[in-house]
Amino acid sequence: MIPIAKPLIGEEEINAVAEVLRSGNIAEGERVKRFEAAFAEFTGTSHAVAVNSGTAALHVALLAHDIGQGDEVITTPFSFVATSNSVLFTGARPVFADIKENTFNIDPGSIVERINSRTKAIIPVHLYGQAADMKSILEIAEDHDLIIIEDACQAHGAAFEGKKVGSFGTGTFSFYPTKNMTTGEGGMITTDDKKVAERAGMIRSHGSRKRYYHEILGYNLRMTDMAAALGLVQLKRLDGFNEARINNAEYLTDRLNKIKGIRVPYIEKRCRHVFHQYTVRIENDIPRDDVASILNSKGVGTGIYYPVPIHRQPLYKDMGYRDSLHVSEKAAQEVLSLPVHPAMSKEDLNTVCITLHEILC
User: Fold this and answer.
1) pLDDT for 94
2) How far apart are alpha carbons 341 and 8 in whole angstroms?
3) Is there a domain that residue 4 lies in?
4) 72-75 and 93-96 beta bridge pairing
5) Are residues 85 and 31 in the same domain?
6) What is the mean pLDDT of residues 144-173?
7) How many angstroms separate the CA atoms of 191 and 45, rounded?
8) Which candidate, 70, 162, 214, 301, has a CA 20 to 30 Å from the CA of 272?
9) Residues 6 or more apart in contact with residue 181 via CB below 8 angstroms
10) For the whole model, what pTM was predicted?
């Protein structure tokens, strides 16, 4: 089986974690501080705050900006549910804007249509490794005095007009094993705002900046030194991982572009797409789910991200969401992600292409 994702863990990562274990200092410590500094430098931001998941990063970022009861946050329905659930955690209400058909990212025009007096923030998701239209989103945020919290959980190293994601507003990242780099579980908040960074640091650690002195309500969302040790090594390898993903994506596109019934990923010319996922649209007489099933039976792993838009999830329907977001709903029926990770060989890439040709031609 060619897996849809595969973390690349080498001896350097293993030794780094083993060193922490041998030290006996395995909770949040010096390595977390080093990882925060290195990740801030990587994204081009002044501050980074490490937490224990991408979901925690989103939640803490929202709280650090005082978003809560009575506020509305505009985001996309075409994402993992953590994006909007994090808004619910704060007591605020997520409002869904539709996506652009070519990039799958939030449509700035749809954002504008949903702004009202309760709107406090926008969460654009840099889906599949490609940045959203941050030029337009920044202009909207400035015009309406809105906060931007970037969900960059799938886009480590992606850029828009040469500027890395996570540096346009308050950035949030995930280090789950399937991401472009991993700490096992983990997340990071990036910002140029010292006050936001300080507040985020307190929220992740029981509302404390000094041990046993608690100034605000907080949580236990800290990253361990074991995770940070893994992250420090993975971060050094990230550019190489991303280049391999980009090269693999180019190889797939060159061959799949010739198969009728497949629409290959669109790359916005202002973006550096780092291909967390290589996602095609199946526009063939054979249903997408059948194509996925046949590929899996022939040893090619696939993923469907996402088969049900968030506003159509049972939780949100029970909460009264009745939006009609046609572009998102159509994409959910057609998208299919294929293996693109750095561990793939040329033989693997050829197998993916040949197998799809056999199915669709």
Assistant:
1) 98
2) 9
3) no
4) parallel
5) yes
6) 98
7) 6
8) 301
9) 156, 175, 231, 234, 235, 237, 238, 241
10) 0.97
